Amino acid sequence: MSLAESSWENNVRRVIPYTPGEQPKGKPVIKLNTNENPYPPSPRVLEAIASLDGESLRRYPDPTAEDLVRSIAKECGLDPGSVFPGVGSDDVLAMSFLTFFASGRPILFPDITYSFYDVWADLFRIPYEQKKLDPEFRIIPRDYFPENGGIVFPNPNAPTGVLLPLETIRQILERNRDVVVIIDEAYIDFAPAGSSAQSLLPEFENLLLVRTLSKSRALAGMRVGYALGAPKLIRYLNDAKYAFNSYTMNAAAIRAGRAAMEDGEWFRETIGKIVKTREASKERMRELGFRVLDSQSNFLFVTHRSVPARELFQALRQNQIIVRYFDRPRIDNYLRITVGTDEEMDALIRFLTDYLKDR
Ligand code: PMP
Fold first, then answer.
1. Is the CB of 154 under 6 A from ligand 1?
2. Are residues 134 and 169 in the same domain?
3. Of 186, 161, 164, 112, nearest to 292 (Cα)?
4. Looking at the domain assignment, is residue 285 inside a domain?
5. How many CB atoms lie under 10 A from the CB of residue 235?
């Protein structure tokens, strides 16, 4: 037997990892690359974290994160038994893939979507098929009608920001009662009221919604996310979680998450500002010759009529403005730009106006 054949490396679970957006250190930049909230979380969050003492850190946290679960349930108008908390929605999504996509049949998701889905599928050896979005980057519902092992898509979609109407979601659910359908609502709080599929939960026991406090509640640094679904789904998720790591939520995250969920006023105010800036920025970008998708999230997805996205990405970067560029088929001429403060967007537009003149 050759050395190569007997190597431990043959037994490694190999996977091509997800690439997170960069978190630059050092000199100040205008950071519009990871869809963070440009405003800080509620002051109540900082108070909650400051209230931690030696006693609360000496002990293990509450494995059920009950205080956090209750505050999420209350804010969403559901029973605590319908809520599953996790370390950001990435943790909740990973646990959901592991738990619900075990049939061996291919799961379905769009070709242009959150680029973590294929990574988890590969990691957990879940077969998958990616369904092409139409030229306007919309989901084609009938693509999701054939037999499958489960469905997952974000709404609004990422990185496009395109929102799928509830009626279309209902159509997909009606044709998929035998598999779990996961809707990743990471950005739903930036969409018009009533866009969430939460109203469909009572009708569909197989529907799981996944949300995050990273975006609309400005808590990306704390890592808090959650799933909403029928108590049966939540029980299965908890079984998988307790088979993996019982203390997923740390004491600080439980307190901070609870405080963020309880400050509805702060939440509505910051969302209002971001949506206003988003709509104004759409207009200004169009005036500069960009095609701007009608994003209902906290980012814009844009392509310029004459200047390649890759060139713009690099030019912006050299001027300390960081946006996201995906070198992938169909979207490699687009930029994803997180909606920042008005001042940050002014700086972006100023730079682009100058850079694009005569182009
Ligand atoms: N879903 C989508 C569509 C996202 O864009 C993100 C952010 N990268 C996440 C989930 C994960 O966010 P978090 O883990 O911070 O909750």
1. yes
2. yes
3. 161
4. yes
5. 12
- For residue 242, give the amino acid letter: Y
Domain boundary among 239, 262, 285: 262
Kindly state whether residues 283 and 297 are assigned to the same domain: yes
CATH of the domain at 281: 3.90.1150.10
**The overall pTM is greater than 0.90:** yes
Q: Is residue 8, in this structure, part of any structural domain at all? A: no
Q: Best of 92, 112, 184 to mutate for ligand 1, by most ligand atoms within 8 A of CB?
A: 184
What's the first-to-final CA gap in the chain, in angstroms?
A: 63
Do residues 107 and 222 both lie within one domain?
yes
Regarding the beta carbon of 155 and ligand 1, being less than 6 Å apart is answered no
Dihedral sign from CA coordinates of 153, 156, 161, 167? positive
CB 32 within 8 A of CB 342: no
Other beta carbons within 10 Å of 277: 20
Reading the block at residue 264, the tokens are 């509805």
- Average pLDDT taken over every residue of the chain: 96
Contact 290, 156 (CB under 8 A): no
pLDDT digits (tens, 9 = 90+) for 246-296: 999 999 999 999 999 999 999 999 999 999 999 999 999 999 999 999 999
Would you give the distance in Å from CA 78 to the centre of its chain?
Answer: 22
Helix or strand holding residue 212 (H, E)? strand 207-212
Closest CA to 285 of 215, 351, 191: 351
Q: Are residues 316 and 346 in the same domain?
A: yes
The ligand 1 atom at the shortest distance from the C-alpha of residue 87 is 14
